[in-house]
Amino acid sequence: MKIAILGTGTVGDTIGSKLIELGHSVMMGSRTKDNVKAKAFVEKHGSNARAGTFSDAAAFGEIIFNCTSGGASLEALKMAGEQNLNGKIIVDIANPLDFSKGMPPSLSVVNTNSLGEEIQKTFPLAKVVKALNTMWCGIMVNPAMVNNGDHNTFVCGNHEEAKAEVKRILTSFGWKNENILDLGDLKSARGTEMFLPLWLQIYSAKKTGTFNIKIVE
Amino acid sequence: MKIAILGTGTVGDTIGSKLIELGHSVMMGSRTKDNVKAKAFVEKHGSNARAGTFSDAAAFGEIIFNCTSGGASLEALKMAGEQNLNGKIIVDIANPLDFSKGMPPSLSVVNTNSLGEEIQKTFPLAKVVKALNTMWCGIMVNPAMVNNGDHNTFVCGNHEEAKAEVKRILTSFGWKNENILDLGDLKSARGTEMFLPLWLQIYSAKKTGTFNIKIVE
Description:
Chain A is an alpha/beta fold. Chain A is built from 10 helices and 11 strands.
């Protein structure tokens, strides 16, 4: 499949690299055509990797992964261009963390709204699926690295077939079907984004990001 | 120990009943002296149980459990009387859920503040410990009912000796020491309170409240 990764940070590199390993063609998009990290990504992966602007990447991809930082996501997606997003799945991995008021970070969109919902409202013809935003990126693409892969990830969104497609991708990353919990429509992105402050506190208490939560009954 | 339970709902009844089972003397406090649920609590438990106003209960208790609903907690604690709270541990189990704007509930205090911090600011000579607010009350006092008791609970607060005392109480409820995670000062109450929207979504997806989260590495 042709996939766009918006964002050249660790999350984008991690997701993009995994998708290439799985045989997909990936274009990493950034603000400019000549982003150093995007070029390094292409050099590392060869012919299945490409680099371009947000707009180039979104036009290329059949599915778009939003791996930009939450505070910059809406602007990056606007630069990607609504016409390049319409009808496509946007897998939104970003969290609207706001470090401007010091630590702990607060959320710039919260409580009665979420970044996922904001993206959906801004691009009503795209199909936003919130996913993977509740853990460190290494675990997103390699769930087996903690507790033999037995822990949970969430999906939510307003389009059932889009969620089903994202679940297939998660399964290809190594997630067991029974550990992918569908929380319903995109309003549930509020909950998964609002988990971040607790995630950061657990990270701080345990001094490691290599953990996830498992729902036990 | 003499313990005050503020609030006559399911949470107060559950915590109060467990404390009596463990040999403590408990006074359940409510807005009025003749609350029907508080009277039933006394009838159920006999001589180790008492009922009174918020003020009666707070004066009686060496430790205060805030089991009121979050939106009413500050008012209830004000009725309890600052002089009855000063120097004492307040175990704050409440969540500031606001159902007034429909489902899903939002939080009335959130993001850059928390109910736990508000209580501490309002009663600066009390020792607020946020605890147990991330699960259904049945599990709070009987962790063994899910996953053989192997899952997590959090404490946070600005007073180390108060947190140590609350940890001892949690241990007496059946919590394993290694599963009680100290998240640091009371700012961390933001994270545990902001977990509630995700909790409610998991509850809705799984159609049961008999679950908790376990941190896996």
